[in-house]
Amino acid sequence: MGDTTDIKKGAIIRHNNDLYVVTFCQFVNPGKGAAFTKTKMKSISTGKGTDNTYKSGENVDVVQVNYQNVQYLYNNGTFY
Asked: What was the pLDDT predicted at 73?
């Protein structure tokens, strides 16, 4: 679990039991009222985008992801 200060562009967030990539993040501190963070996110599984607003200090489930380059190896039609 993290805080709204952990939300950055490219972060992976678990929201409504789905993983989302943050594509846009803006911290807004209006002169009147509480501060909040506006985000645009894209679902990893479905590809659909969504807008979400988090109140300042709200708990957010930020997921740690390791990126790794891989190479797919396949045979040319023969089965072993």
From this structure: 79
Contact 39, 8 (CB under 8 A): no
* Contact status, residue 21 vs residue 47, Cβ threshold 8 Å: no
Q: Residue 22 phi/psi, 5° resolution?
A: -80, 120
Q: Give the DSSP H/E element, type plus range, for residue 13.
A: strand 12-15
Contact criterion met (CB below 8 Å) for 22 and 8 = yes
pLDDT of residue 8: 92
Tokens representing 4? 């709204």
In the structure encoding, which two tokens stand for residue 67, read together?
């990126």
25 and 8 in contact (C-beta within 8 Å)? Answer: yes
Distance CA 4, CA 26 (A): 11
In order of 6, 36, 64, 72, the CA distances from 61 in angstroms are 10, 16, 10, 32
Residue 78 pLDDT: 64
Q: Tokens 């072993």 appear where?
A: 80
